[in-house]
Amino acid sequence: MLGRTGKVLQIAATYIGTVVGAGFATGQEIIQFFTRFGYWGTAMIAVATVMFVWLGMKMMLLSSEIKAKSYEDLNKVLFGERYGRWISHFMLFILLGVTAVMLAGAGTIFYENWNISYQSGLLITMVGCFFLLRKGMKAILAVNAVIVPLMLLFTFLVMTNTFHMPESDRFLTLPTDQPFWSALAAPFLYTAFNLSMSQAVLVPLGAEVNDRKAIIIGSWVGGAGIGFLLLAGHIALSAHMPGVTQYEIPMGGIAKQLGYGVQLVYTFLIFAEIFTTLIADIYGLALQLQQRTGGSRSLITFSILMICYLASQIGFGPLLSTLYPVFGFISMGWLYLMIRKRMARRV
User: CA-to-CA distance for 229 and 152, rounded, in angstroms?
Assistant: First the structure.
């Protein structure tokens, strides 16, 4: 039982750590997808949580059953040999773009918060990624086992502090001028993008875990954890609306009110969440390319890092604003096919 409990916690922590990236940790994603829709945002978070639990679990269960070596194996089972290969081609470019965005975000954290040059921040992050990923999935599990509990604890502290404010219930009453249909689409857009990105690490994770019950429970715990983080962030941000929207890092603006020490810890957590997403994406890409080429994983990992380093010279902001809308559009198509195929298979 102890062994199963450990697997459950590792699955849950890896799931949360893979989804909770830079945009989530800063609060920007929560505002854009949920908080700007006022009291509707709370209900939409519930919808997103259900989808994270359901589809994350199904993804890992199928991966375990077919012993998928990479996300391409899963896509072929879901969509057929021909279309699965094309979807995997799209995923390859999407993951490269996301990885470049994450790397650029890490360099920005070093420059804006720790007085270390952008280029040095990129190189430090790349070296850390390369040596950690030589240990494979064990490194991803170990990093998330440390970072995710800290993120949950910090978010809980921010939420409890919000409950002492006179407008702590604004997440239930906050008005909005956004159309209802936009609010209704938000959880589907949000889960589509994050789940399509998460398959790079959740597919090999599901394949390695030879315990169906652990996958099911781990998915419930992980999906619920993502929902808690979304709701806690939404509660805190709603209480500070609309003033908090002036910050590039909204949750950082809230953290400032809790003291310098809390702000310092939060900055580290933002970097850590970027780092966990970065190593997860690179791991998935390396598995995919190794399966295609049969080359050395270390060499492939190094090559991916160099490509992302060159792309990161464009900068965090321009990469984010240019690539993410395209990724969102492609991910919605992926989500539609995923739901349709899985429901038909009744897996």
Answer: 7
pLDDT confidence of residue 344: 40
pLDDT (tens digit per residue) in 255-264: 777 777 877 8
The DSSP output letter for 137 is H
Q: Is 307 exposed, middle or buried (0-12, 13-18, 19+ CB in 10 A)?
A: middle
Contact 60, 215 (CB under 8 A): yes
Among residues 24, 73, 345, which one has the least CA distance to residue 202?
73
> Residue 224, Cα to own-chain centre: how many angstroms?
14
Residue 94 predicted with pLDDT over 60: yes
Cα separation of 127 and 121, whole Å? 10
Which residue shows structure tokens 């502090």? 161
Let me know: does 89 contact 104? Beta carbons within 8 Å: no
CA–CA–CA angle 324, 268, 307 (5° rounding)? 45
Angle at 254 between CA 250 and CA 256, to 5 degrees: 115
2-345 CATH fold: Hydantoin permease (1.10.4160)
Query: Do residues 56 and 203 lie in contact, with contact meaning Cβ atoms separated by under 8 Å?
Result: no
Q: How far apart are CA 35 and CA 27, in angstroms?
A: 10
**How does pLDDT run across 182-191, given as a tens digit for each residue?**
889 889 988 9
Are the beta carbons of 197 and 281 closer than 8 angstroms? yes
Is residue 53 classed as helix, strand or coil in its secondary structure? helix
Q: Is the preceding omega at residue 242 within 30 degrees of 0, hence cis?
A: yes
Could you give the percent of the chain with pLDDT greater than 70? Answer: 92
pLDDT band at residue 284, thresholds of 50, 70 and 90? confident
